[in-house]
Structures are given as C-alpha cells and as structure tokens.
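User: I'm putting together a teaching handout on how multi-component assemblies are represented. Below are the sequence lines for each component of a complex, exactly as they appear in our records. Could you produce the 3D structure of the whole assembly as structure tokens, so the students can see both representations side by side? Please keep the chain order the same as the input.
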Amino acid sequence: MLNKLKEISEQARQAINSVQTIQQIRDLQTRFLGRKSFLANASQSIASLAPEQRPLAGKTLNSVKKEIFSLLEEKQKSLQKQEQGIDISLPGFPVEIAGSHPLTNVINEICRVFEDLGFEVQQGSEIETEKYNFQALNIPLDHPSRDAFDTFYLQLPADRTQGRYLLRSHTSPSQIRIMEKRKPPLAVVVPGKVYRPDNVDASHSFMFHQIEGFAVDREINFSHLKGVLVEFGRRVFSADTRLRFRPHFFPFTEPSAEVDISCLLCSGKGCPVCKHSGWLEILGCGMIHPNVLRAVKINPAKFQGFAFGMGVERIAMLKYGISDIRLFFSNHKKFLRQFYEV
Amino acid sequence: MKFSFEFLKEFVDINISARELADKLTLAGLEVVNIEETSQAVSLETEVTTNRYDWLSLAGLAYETAALLDKKVRLKPARIRLPKSVYSGVSVTDRKDCPLYLGALIEGVKIQDSPGWLKKCLLGCGINPVSNAVDITNYCMLKWGQPLHAFDYNKISFGKIFVRRAEHGEKIITLDGRERKLAKEVLVIADSQKPIALAGIMGGKETEISSDTRNIFLEAAIFNPLVVRRGARIAGLSTDSSYRFERYVYPLYTFEAFRQACEMFGILCHGKVASWVKSGIISVPKSKTISFSPRQVVRHLGLNVPAGRIKKILRSLGGKVKSSAGRIVFTPPAFRRDLQAKEDVFEEIARIYGYGKIPVNLPLLSRKSSSPEFRFDNLLRRKLNACGFQEIITYSLVQQTEAKDFSLKEPVFLANALRREEGVLRTSLCLGMVKALNYNLSHKQEGLKFFELGRIFFSQNNRHREVQSLCLGTTSSQALDILRMKAAIHTLLEKTGIEPEFKKIEKPGFVSCAGIICQGQSLGFLAALNSLLKDKYGFSQEVFLCEMEVEKICTLAGPAKYRPVSLLPQVFRDISFALSRQQEFSAIEEMINKTAAGLCRNWQAIDFYSGKKLPAGFLGMTLRLSYQHPSRTLTSEEVDSVHEKVRRALMALPGVILR
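Assistant: Of course. Below is the structure of the complete assembly, with chains in the same order as your input.
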C-alpha cells in the first residue's frame, strides 16, 4: 500500500513537472485526485489492512493527497505568472461609429428642449405659396419689409387663391398651416429647410435650416416668450447663458424682439467673435400679430400667442466655433465625424 | 444709416456719451451696429427696421433720443420767406405717382466748396462732400429725411419739368455715368425733350451741377413708394434717396426741407429764390386714436406698468394722451405711421420701459405628441447609424442636365435661379450623394457609407409633388460589394418590420439594378452606377446607390415579431459551385427550399471568387447550409442524405458546375 502511494506520488510529481497548460493541470487533477482516481478510493483499501498498519497508511494517503494538491496549485500559479498579455500601450484598432449630420443633431437637441417645455414637433412643406409665405403673415406684397425675405419662385402655374408657388423663405408658413387646421391651445416647433437667393460664401447659403416655434392660448404673454427662450438658451448653450431682448420689427409679430445671448467665447466681456459687444444675435421673436391670428380665423380678442424663429446653422456655428457655413453641405467625412448627439 | 453724434446734439440736449446713447438706442429697437470715433467726430451706424422711416432722419432720431432721455426737441426750422412769384413750368401727369412736387428756381448761385462745418457734418454721416449746392441737398435730406435734387436750370430745355412715366425705349445717362434704358414702370423727371432724372432714385448727368452752374432748379417731391421701389429694382439701383422714398417721407418735412434748402442756397451760394411752385397738396394723414386699458397691457406683456408711467412714456413719444373710464386714449404723433393698433402701442410702452424689465415666466403647456413623420425620420437615422451609415445633407437645388442622369421625373424649375448650377429642385437624392462620395474620395477619405434623408420634388399630371426620400450610397473597388449594401438595406428594413424582396429591374444610368419590393409595393431601388456615369462624375471605383420613399417604409413598418429560438443543434454543410451569369441565383434558392424539405433553415454565401480556373462567364461561390430539425436532433445520416439530395439537384440545374 505504502509503496503504491509512493509510486503515485512520484508519478504525479513527474507529470506535474512537465505540465504546460492549464488544461493539463485540470487533467492531472482528475487523474490523481478525481472521483475515480486511486487516491479517492484508497480509504476503502486502508480499511482492509491490518489494524496496526492503518494509521501509517492513512497518514501517508493524506500527505500524498495534500502534496499533489499543493503541487498542482503551485504549478497553476506559476503557469499564470508566465502567461503573457498584450502590450496594452500599443495603439488600438480604430472603430468608426456613424452618426447624424451635425445640423440634425442641433435640430434634435433644440426640439428636445422644446418638447420638454411642452411643445410638439411638426413638419411642413418646402414648396409654399405667396399666401402662406407672405400675405397671411402680414407681409405686404410690394413693401421694403419683403426685402428680408427674398425668395425663389417656381415655374409652376400660380394658384388662383394662393398666388405664386415658391420655396419657403422661412419656416413661418407652417405656423399659418397649423393654426388654420387646429384650434388653440397650441404649442408647436417646426424645424426645416428654407431657401433664399443668396450667393454662397462663408456666411451665406441659398439653403439653410430654421426652427419655428409658437404657442397660442388665452393668456400667453410676452413674459412666457421670455421664459421659454431663457430656458432654451440655458439648455442649448450653457447654464450661465444670459439673454438680451432687443425691440425689433417683424411684420408678423407685435411687439417684436431680436434676442442676443451673452457671447459664448468671452461670456460678455467683448471679443472679436461678438464684435466687442459681448452679445451674439441668435433669433427673432414676438407676440403674434393680431392680423396673423385674424388670417387664420382665430379671434385676437380671445387668444394671443408668441412666435419665434431661429437659424440652425448659425446656432451650430456659434456652438462649435465653425466659421464657414459651406462646411455643412460639403459633407467631408472628417468634418461630419466630429459631432455626436448630446 | 450713419449719423454724426454732434449733428444730433444740435437738436436735442444729450448729457450722456455716444456709447451710452448707442446702448440706449439699441435696447429701444434702433440697433447701433458700429461706433466710429475719430479726433474730428463720433459717428453711429444704425440698422433701421423697415417700419421706422422716421429713424432715417436726424429729426426722427432727435424725437427718439428725447423720449429716451426725457428731453425736448428743437429742430430749428428755416425762417426764409419765399417770394410770391410762381414758377409755372411744372406739370405732373399722374397725381398717384407724385402727390406733391415742390420746385424753386434759384438764380445767381456761386458753386464752390462747402464751408468746413458742413463738410464735417456730411462726412460724419458717411456722405462725401461734393459742392455747396449738392451738399445742401444732402444736409437737408439727412436732417428731414426728405431727398432733394438740384438741377442745373440752364440745361433744362425751356425750363419745363414734366413728372411722367418713361416712354418705352427712352434712355438716360445717370449721375453715375451709366446709360440706362427705361421702361414704362419707371417714373422720370423730364424736360420738354427727354428724361433728366429717375424720379426719387438718381439725377441725370446732363443737368448735373457743375462749377459753371449759375441757376439752379431745386426739387422737393413726394413720389409713390411702390413706383420708386419698382423703378429702383428695374434700374438695379438703391440710393439714399430711393431708400427713403420706398419707406415713406413725411409731407410736413418735405416742405421744411425745401424751405431750409432755399435758405441755405441764399446763405452758402449767394443764390436768390426767383420763383417757386407747389404742385399738389401737403396732406398728412390723421393719426388714428388708439384706446386700451392698462389691464390689456399686463395681459399682453405679462408686465405691470402703472397707468401713470404708461401715460408718461406715450407723451414722451410726442403723442396726445387722455384717460377716460379707466382706459387710455392715445393719439400718436402724425409722423408715427407705424402706430396703428393697440399692440403697436404696447410695444412702444415695452421698449421705452425696457424689454429687460419684462418678467421671465414659463407657460403651462399641455403637449400633444410630435408628428409621426418627424419621429420616424429619427428612428431611421438611428438604424442607419447602427448599420454604419453616416448622415449627410446636400443642396436641394441642382443642375437640370445632371438631375436627369439620376431620375426621369419631371423637375420643378426655379423662375429666378441664381445660377444654372442651381436651376431645378432635385428629383432624386442620388445626385447629391454621388457628389458627396466623389468629394470625399478626392480628399482620400475611405470606407464611405453615407445616407441622406430629405425632400425630392417633381411635377406629375400638372401638379407638383414633394416627397420625403431616403438615399444610401457607398463606394468600393469590388463590384460584388453591392451585396453588402443589399444586406444592409435588408437589415435596415427588417428592423422596421419589413421583409423586402429584391427584384431585377432595368434603370437607365445604372447596372446591377434591383427594385425593393414589399407586399407588392415598390419602395425604391438598389443599383450600381453604370460606367458611363462613373466616368462622367469622375469615379474609378464602383458606386452603389439606393433610394426609397420614406412614407412607404413608414406605412409598412411594424413592431418586432417574436419567434421562439430553437436550441436544437444545427449542422453546417458547405457546398461549392460555379454559377453561369445566365443563371439567376434565385433558381438555386428555390431549389434548396424545395429539396431540403424544411430541414435547411437558412444558408449563407460565405465566399465568392472568380478567376482563371473558372470558365468565362461563371462566378464561383460557397454556400453554407444550416440543417436543423424543428423538433428533434438530426442524425448525421439524415443530414448527409438531405445534403446529397441538394447537391444532386444543384448539379441538375443548367448553368451550374459543382466543384
């Protein structure tokens, strides 16, 4: 018995010595210590020995088991020590993640802010008529106030009641379309493309994006317009962004305002980006003109509301410090890949 | 408009600096965009909104400044007494074109440089001094907002002045030295022979004041704003004069400017008014009275301005204010034509009181859900991103000759395109996609996988249509890589709940064309650019394009469907063969479905190859078939037997060579 144990101990020692892999250790474990191994069944053989031989045999069995167990353990540890990883300071293999266009990101970010404030997002057509682009918005046919809305007209036969077809020069026609179809209370933002016959340069484009917003109800007033836009400014730019409302003129709002935000670069101290004024013009807004409400058969004595409109490219350019509007439409992959949703 | 700070100080006491005034004006709605300080003067440049013609004159600026600083205005009108003798040579054809024409013959003038103060004043307002006579007209225009014109009287044929529309084909050389052909829409000042000025826009070269001028004919008129506007547009001119006429001039100031100019011609040019004429009447439309209650102000602005303060603000603007039965009745000054409704008055109150003092409140809005189209677009974007496609945005205006390369739809043309390159609305997103791919390739960008979501436009049965479209584009050196694109589209659609079929179609400009079909509806197509177009647009690589109608995808889209996942073992068997280009793969697909009797659950093409070892016109491929029984484990004998059947069936197909 004792010889047999010695023999096994010797076999194990040799086998363990030549082990190379963890898998071999598992195999040896099964071979020497597993349920079917000699050692596992040796206790029964000890019982059949003469009583005076039993203690020594038992002792030896235990020490052999222990020895093999600790040899395996040791070997496993030393194998693990030898295991070589990869030099993790080597450069990683690049992974490309596709994303939305930066303008889409900005539009979605802004729309989400307004959705949180209780606005719904709607969309409108890019082909519009004079009625919706101008007349219903209180912009007279032949008036200097139209100069700001130079427009691409389309070679389509004019509509008898709505006038000539055109590419919308702002997103405000959607305001009319929605108010015409639905009753207040309304709180809607409309993002989309608009077109103006401007020659393309670093700051002009004949196609760009706007977001129109408006709310109409019985008691909506100018302070609400301020509240909504202040929240917008803080969330889209930064928490300490200040807003400045300057009186302005738009045919479709009264009172009207242009809104400046404190300069994102110098936070109001004055720098070349804000032309040393400390302020950056960001959007136009006002209380919806009673003539506009009348045009969509909403009684201005009962309902009132505000409207605002902003240029998406301008906001994106200010947000990211982009100095050329053409970059948005040339679609260079290295440009597009820099932006991501927030 | 640019004006000098010192000039303004003549008419109103200003006890703050130019910079402080600029801030006040800006916050009151007259944006000062630039302040120019020289040792000589301080000039402010303003951006005047179209409703405030009055801010185009120092008189109007003085009233605004006075209201902001709580001061009085002193305009110092001329004191000249005009002679009794009437100038008889003026005739106005249509009163609607020219409601008022004031003219004076000033004799014995001496043309020379203006005195220093006048030069400085004009320079401070951004106008170059010319000569005393011209400078006087500009000075009076700046002060009163009324454009004036001085003619060399001796060059006016028979001293006759006709205010009339131009005859078709008439010509004039304007002061800028350009000859202009005139049309009926243009109002002119003419003598008995020919036009001598474009009314309200620019004078003629022939009657220009020169150092030899001895007698002057001075004109101060009111021309119809629309007529001046159209005339200026036709002539392609915008002058200080036309700019003001388009925006309205105030008839009382027309007369003041006329009188002041007459007076100044006496003082600075030693001239004498020999006779003058007033053709038409000086009429100022009566101001509308506007009545409102202070409660309405609160309701509109959310700002509580005490009634006393409201009245004070309105009085400072120069209007009349009365109270009756808790209401305020306001009569704006006659020159404030922009004040028509109570909302206009609310703005006046707010802007003088300060927009900054209006409180900031959040309204309680009960939101309805956003448009499904908007949400579906964003849903598609996320899935496309997950498939590795980057979004691009390209111009909707394209060149017609290029547009027709990618779509046979009838385009909508612009009536006033800037350039031929942007003459029509895009009928397909493919053109923009191709250009974006090409631009990136030319900048050595690789791994291009782009998509665009946007509108396309076309005419159909005499009506225009505007449709939301989705375009995917990739490039590769391998023609077979179109199959990656096909798989991507399949995955994209599958993940919106659509099981698409790809059916071979023909499409001009493309090869390897497939229509994308679902439930009998065509969603769009997938194809590669043919070699002609590849060459035309400068590609040496393959270009794969897909365009689909978003609305159709949206309509067919549905939620995910769950099928239990079988954990029974799958057995894979590969089969390699070469397929003739005459034989469509769909035949093999059909054969497997028929032969494998429901045991082949799916298969994949794991390899394609072409080369010398294959007969010409053959494509080699390896299919990996996956065998699985729906309810029990398959034995390998069963798999072998069915796979053998598949092999035999495959061998029997025409155009297939088993390897």
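A couple of points students might notice: The CA atoms of residues 502 and 516 of chain B lie 5 Å apart. The first strand of chain B starts at residue 2 and ends at 4.
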